[in-house]
Amino acid sequence: MTFELMWPLVLGAGFGLGCFVLVRALFPSRPSAAATVLRVDARARVSTRGNGQQPVTASASRAARRAQLRELLGLQASQLCARQGWEFPALRADLSLLGRSFESFMATKILVGLLGLVFGPAVFVALWAAGFASSLTLPLWLALVFAALFFFLPDIEVRGDAKKARTDFVHVLGSFTTLVANSLSGGRGLPEALKTATEITDTPPMLRLRSELQGARSENLTHWQALDRLGQEIAVPELRDLASRIQLAAGDGARIRSSLMSTAKTISDRELSAAEGKAGAQSQTMLIAQLSLVAGFMIFLVYPGLMAVASL
């Protein structure tokens, strides 16, 4: 299919999509009960935030309106995912670990995707001004490609940040387990030992553990239930393993101490293995770089001689 035939098809598809979106906006489908509850909660949150200190400048008022529109956009996207049954458990676990909401993340994806949709034609203008592009279909393809690329950039960022944050959480969890075991050896009870261990430092993982244990009291949950729920929420299996060990050894101080020390040793061994594997990968990377330099240098030395022989 030639570009002359493809261009009317693309325009017709875009016009049809625009008509469909217009009809859906003018005659929306009846929302479900869950969507209605979420919309009411969002309006309540927005109105509650608006009851505080009023903005004193026009820029602050515009910023508040932008934040409100961003929140509503993320809420609409979240409702769409809920209606379609798209749960994204791994993504939600990463966002929970980073302390970000799913609605805010979806709003960011949509806005960044729209930025890519505008960035594509801008690239075409630059290429056209330089004399490298003349096709009329190129702006459309560039817009679609950059929109798709920009749309998935937040996922890559969240995945990288969550991987680092999960590694830090596991490292802090090993120290937390050792502190709890030492407190139990000093004669403290399990609730007091857990509370004391979380008050040693104010790092984000320790603050998360402290908040979860404090919330367990008001929700009438046991400590291991709270830890297991947090481990499931942020996808940290080491925390769930710790919760199961505490549950199995509950009521026996000696068993709890030995179980916690075993858990701390397991976490430490895993971190050591991961560090050794990372160091080995970096050593292989350096070796490949050195071999590439040697190969390039040998080519630099041999090439003039080969060219001289070939010219005879």
Structural descriptors:
312 residues; mainly alpha; 11 helices; flat
Provide the β-strand percentage band.
under 5%
Secondary structure category: mainly alpha
Radius of gyration: 29 Å
Order of helices and strands: HHHHHHHHHHH
Continuous helix count: 11
End-to-end distance, in Å?
A: 51 Å
Task: Identify low-pLDDT runs.
Answer: 49-56
The global form is: flat
The overall pLDDT, averaged over residues, is: 79
Sketch the major β-sheet: none
Beta strand count = 0
Percent helix: over 70%
Secondary-structure map with pairings?
Blueprint: H1 3-26, H2 33-50, H3 58-84, H4 89-98, H5 102-130, H6 138-185, H7 190-198, H8 204-218, H9 223-234, H10 237-248, H11 253-310
Overview of this protein structure:
There is one protein chain. The protein is mainly alpha-helical and 312 residues long. It is built from eleven helices and no strands. Helix 5 runs antiparallel to helix 6. About 3% of the residues have low confidence.
Describe the structure concisely for a colleague:
It is built from 11 helices and no strands.
